[in-house]
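Workshop exercise sheet. Pairs work together: one partner reads the sequence aloud, the other fills in the structure field after running the prediction. Swap roles for the next sheet.
Pair: D.N. / O.F.
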Amino acid sequence: MSGDTDWVEVYMVKKEDDGEEVQTSSPLWSEERCEELWDRVEEVRHKLTRILNPAKLTPYLRQCKVIDEQDEDEVLNSTQYPLRISKAGRLLDILHAQGQRGLQAFMESLEFYHPEQYTQLTGKQPTQRCSLILDEEGPEGLTQFLLLEVRKLREQLRNSHLCERRLSQRCRMAEEERSRAERKAQELRHDKLLLERLRQDCESSSRELGKLKDRLLEQAVKYSSALEEQGRASIREKELLRQVEELKTRLTEADKKQSDTTKIYKSNSLRSKAVNGSSPAVMENLLQRAEVQKAESPKTPTNSSDPSTGVIALMDILQQDRREAAEQRQELCDIIAKLQGELQSAEEHRDKLESQCEQLQLKVSTLQLDWDTEQKSSFTDS
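Structure field:
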């Protein structure tokens, strides 16, 4: 309380000193001066209504007794003035209606709460004398008003500290969230690169699988052509065997004919020997019978040797063809076995590539699902 009393004494001295100033500077609040100041206020009315806070000014104006509770309630709580700009405009109208006292109270409130606007309107630096409160309420009223203002400022300071702490906490949370988001983004970039590599591997495996399928198809075509060739060789071998059987039959028949011819020659030679010791009539008879047999088979001695020679040559040719066909068949069997081995290895490689491709596709789908989930979660968090 001693500090308040000392301030009041000092202020009273200043008030006494100000009394002389007021007496000597009474033209400051003359009617012309007031009109000039109001004109300046109207010139910057739009700017002032955007800056002023009526809830902050009305307590001081009520202490100065230029507005009452009804005016304060109208300015602050009326539904006709929902915006702060309209409330500030209505407050200026009420103060303008109060004349010189309203202007003085408004200027002192500007001097106290908005010193920059006070300096722009009056061209003077603020002194914060609060002369109207001293005139109306005295030093005690001013002290009470200032104490209330100090309490309000302390409350505002406490609220600002609380707001600062809340903002700091939110800032830390935002920083942590940003760090998590950066880590997630880095993980997503890594997963994206991995997904791209897996896609490339899958595409290369698919291309290799296509090449293997082409090779498998080519081997299948070769295999089918080899089977057809083997079938044709089998048919040819059967035909050659049939021809060999026919030639064997013909050779047997030729051997029989040759043996018959040999028997005939032997019988004729025996008869010729017998004729040499017989009568001329019997000899003549035998000669006639030999001529008849010769007439019946004139080419038997000559043809008996030719068919056997031709059959043997034909048999040699057929056996040579049969050996060549057997060799060709063996070659075809070797080719078929080789193609079957290549086909089996190609099928095993194809199955292996298909399993690898399926695994890669499963990994790709899993990574794609994880990517989509991370994208959705990141969008939800943001």
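Discussion prompt: The radius of gyration is 67 Å. What would you look at next?
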